[in-house]
Amino acid sequence: MRHAAYLSTSRHGIFYFRLPIPSHLHPNRKSSDVKMSLATRCPRVAARLSRQLIIAGQSLLARPTVKAMKYPDIRQHVQNHFRDRLDKFKIGVAEAGPISDDREDGLRALIRAAEGNQTTFIDHAYIDDEDRLLREFCDQQGITAKLTSEDRRLILRDFQKAYLQHAKAALDHNASYSRFELEDAPSVIHRNAAMPLLAADRLDEVAGRHIAEGKRANLWVAKTLTEKSDALNLLAQLTKNKPIRDITKADARSVKSALQKLPKNRNKSPATKGLSLDEMLALEKLPINSIRTLNGYVSHFQTFFKWAVEQGYATDNVFEGMRFRMAKRDKSIQRDAFTSAQLKVMFMHLTENPDGLVGATAAIDRPPTGEVCAAGCIDTHKQKCVRLSEANLQTIYQRRKLRRMIPNNRTGKAT
Residues 244, 203: contact at Cβ < 8 Å? Predict the structure, then answer.
């Protein structure tokens, strides 16, 4: 018995006794310990006290191990054991095919033995080795407690019953590979057709559940939530609030066609405010939404139907692939970047001011190069400069005010 393993000292030299508690005795199956002060700095006294505490602690820990297991626990262990065995058998048959005739005969012999008395079963299945059967069973199920005689009796009794059911189930599964379906194959069923679809599940009801679930999970910011609610409300109006399972690809095309006629800012514009959706769509010569805005609507529709399919409300995401196509940006309308020569000219006149063309006020504050050019003070194409007037400076400073609030279109950062 090593006392040092149970002893430790504090920073003041006081000896402490530590008794480890096995994880199987902890209610949460965690390793823990009990620690107590021995109130001494003397190693001899600490060793004598620890010797007595070790004996007392080990006797206390040994008591629960001889306590009989609860029958529901025994039953659950036996059930888990044979479920695992049956799963492994099915995997083996699936990979290698049906078992041989010899193995079938062996299973039938075990069934006859299991239907008899316990002694005959153990003799046939485990060669008269009851201890080996229990040892292997406990190792596989992680049972570390010492078994009482009653535990052994209950385990062996249930083991025999479960073995009988396991062997019969294994033979039935193996026999299923000898049967073939030769009748006409049933019509193809959609992958989600088995899910319950209720006629009462109209689109606005399902949309409400989708929004409520997103709110509860805090999935969206306030702006996204408003846009999504507006989009789904619009979808319900365009589809006449049909049951969600009845909405088809043709309905999705009709919705896409209606979106192209939808007036811009329909809820705010004086021309459309207060009108019904049908009246709005009947109006002509009003500004309509951009392709980017329309794709935003379609994106909300796609996300909603994807969720509905996953939840079993719908069978297809009818808006999949329904986004509007967008042409690439026309490079002719984009502003050309400054060339290296132009940048050198601007930098020279704004920093060195060799010709004295930049006034003192501008030299002190040194406005950004792009602002000076935008104010018309430097002609970068002709590489000429003009003297900054008060009007030029006023224009520059006003632009700087705006640029503090608006991110730079090149760097994406405020200047």
Answer: yes
Lowest-confidence range among 66-70, 263-267, 407-411? 407-411
The residues facing 20 across adjacent strands are 33
Task: Extract the tokens encoding 62.
Answer: 């040994």
The dihedrals phi and psi of 31, each to the nearest 5 degrees, come to -75, 135
Place of tokens 């939808």: 262
Q: What is the pTM of this model?
A: 0.37
pLDDT tens track for 192-234: 444 444 445 788 888 888 998 888 888 888 888 888 999 899 9
Q: Phi, psi (5° rounding) for residue 50?
A: -65, -35
In the block, which residue shows the tokens 């935008």?
374
- Return d(Cα 130, Cα 245) in angstroms, integer: 60
For the chain, what is the largest distance between any 2 Cα atoms, rounded to a whole number of angstroms? 116
HEC-encoded secondary structure of the chain:
CCHHHHEEECCCCCEEEEEEECHHHCCCCCCEEEEEECCCCCHHHHHHHHHHHHHHHHHHHHCHHHCCCCHHHHHHHHHHHHHHHHHHHHHHHHHHCCCCHHHHHHHHHHHHHHCCCHHHHHHHHHCCCHHHHHHHHHHHHCCCCCCCHHHHHHHHHHHHHHHHHHHHHHHHHHHHHHCCCCCCCCCCCCCCCCCCCCCCCEHHHHHHHHHHHHHHHCCCCHHHHHHHHHHHHHHHHHCCCCEHHHCCHHHHHHHHHHHHHCECCCCCCCCCCCCCHHHHHHCCCCCECCHHHHHHHHHHHHHHHHHHHHHCCCCCCCCCCCCCCCCCCCHHHCCCCCCHHHHHHHHHHHHCCCCCCCCHHHHHHCCCHHHHHHCCCEECCCCEECCCCHHHHHHHHHHHHHHHHCCCCCCCCCC
Provide the sign of the torsion angle of the four alpha carbons 402, 405, 410, 413, taken in this order. Answer: positive
Beta bridge partners of 18: 35
What is the token pair recorded at 167? 């062997």
Whether the Cβ atoms of residue 296 and residue 234 lie closer than 8 Å to each other:
no
Q: What's the token pair of residue 128? A: 């008269």
